[in-house]
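Hey, I'm writing a tutorial for new members on how sequence and structure tokens pair up, and I'd like a real worked example in the thread rather than a made-up one. If someone can provide the structure for the chain below, I'll link this post from the tutorial.
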Amino acid sequence: IDRTEQGAVSGIGLIRTQLGEPGPDGRRRPKPVEGSEFILDADVLIMAFGFQSHPMPWLSGYNVQLG
């Protein structure tokens, strides 16, 4: 997560992926493309995982407000 000097969100770091070769189960899994990192500009980020809310204590290190 990129932030301004004042601590506001300014973007998020991403990396492009491509599908790898099929594994033993026949499924192709995404692999990172080396050197394709980039910043997507944003002034708001909404994290969403699954369908039920649950605590995310790992966010406390990023000064993220929850609720």
